[in-house]
Amino acid sequence: MQQSQILRNLFLFAALSSMAVVVLGVCDSCQTNNVACLNETHYRFCGDNVAPNQVAQCPTGQVCTNLSIICMDEGLYDASCSDTAADGSCPSCDGTTMFVCTSRTTFQQCNGTSLLSQVTYCKDNKICSINSGKYCVDLCEAGDSIECDRTTPLA
Ligand SMILES: *[C@@H]1O[C@H](CO)[C@@H](O)[C@H](O)[C@H]1NC(C)=O
Ligand SMILES: *[C@@H]1O[C@H](CO)[C@@H](O)[C@H](O)[C@H]1NC(C)=O
Ligand SMILES: *[C@@H]1O[C@H](CO)[C@@H](O)[C@H](O)[C@H]1NC(C)=O
Question: Is any atom of ligand 1 closer than 6 Å to the C-beta of 101?
């Protein structure tokens, strides 16, 4: 391969990787403060020297942020991983579709323009994708089109 081709491939790879980060949002992704926020209030540690899979919780009224103090009073700073941040991006039942994604990993059936309450879950590591016709797909297959970028369905 010529050097220019190698460089182009590297560039493509870098561009795609940075897109993937955007797609995943900042939930469960290690931040510069060495924690990954799992939702508005819970986080895990990322440092090499900390045993993995330990979940900690912010004090009541505080949210997990990318600041070095990690937890900050709600309303003073944006939570890194929040359900409400992505509220506008989830589809609603508009009468033309039988199912809608109600979080990254769940979908629900529509009855006309109303949403039925039963929640159906995708398998582990799958992302809800009604547009695909398969209900749930691999993250790479979903590409940059996550239909409902929320951690859990609204009640
Ligand atoms: C946040 O995530 C933690 C750990 O996964 C979980 O125990 C907790 O119930 C979640 N809180 C909300 C509000 O979803
Ligand atoms: C921290 O989060 C804020 C608000 O979400 C964002 O504007 C900022 O770019 C983030 N900083 C870093 C270092 O990720
Ligand atoms: C769907 O909506 C119709 C009309 O509002 C109602 O009669 C019916 O019971 C609903 N079906 C379900 C499964 O909720």
Answer: no
